[in-house]
Write a structure and sequence with these properties.
Ubiquitin-like (UB roll); mainly beta
C-alpha cells in the first residue's frame, strides 16, 4: 500500500495541514494539500500546498521567497490531519503569513474583541512586489 493511500482525504481530495516551526514549536499556518502536493513536499523537502482560491499547487515561498524547509511529516491518530515540522526561511525571524507576520495566528480574543498581538515584520506590499 502506498503511504498516501493511508490518508483520509476529504470529498475534494484534500487534507488539512498545520505547519509548525521546528525550533520554537510555534504554529505558523494552516493550509490544504492534495495527493500531488503532499507527494511533492515529501520529495522536495519543501512545503507545497494546494491553493483552493487559485485552484492550483502553491510552492510556499514561490512569490515571497519565504520557503518552508520540511523536517518531518506527521499524521494524526485519525489519519485526517497532516503536521509539518518546518524551518521558515527567507527572513529572520521567519515570515509565514501573507500579512508579513511570523504566524498566521496573530489575532487574539480579548474582552470580546479580536486584537492583533504580533507585529508585522515586513510590509506585505514589499514582499509581493
Amino acid at each position: 500500500m502506498n503511504w498516501l493511500d493511508e490518508i483520509k482525504w476529504d470529498d475534494k481530495g484534500l487534507v488539512p495541514v498545520i505547519a509548525q516551526e521546528q525550533g520554537t514549536g510555534d504554529v505558523l499556518m494552516f493550509a490544504w494539500m492534495n495527493r500531488e502536493a503532499l507527494s511533492l513536499t515529501a520529495q522536495r523537502g519543501q512545503a507545497v500546498y494546494w491553493s483552493r482560491s487559485r485552484g492550483k499547487l502553491w510552492h510556499k515561498g514561490e512569490e515571497s521567497g519565504h520557503f518552508q524547509q520540511v523536517h518531518e511529516i506527521r499524521l494524526d491518530c485519525d489519519n485526517d490531519v497532516v503536521l509539518l515540522r518546518v524551518t521558515q526561511l527567507g527572513h529572520d525571524p521567519g515570515i509565514a503569513c501573507h500579512t508579513g507576520r511570523h504566524s498566521c495566528f496573530f489575532q487574539k480574543l480579548e474582552n470580546g474583541v479580536w486584537s492583533a498581538v504580533e507585529p508585522v515584520l515586513k510590509d506585505p506590499h514589499k514582499i509581493y512586489e
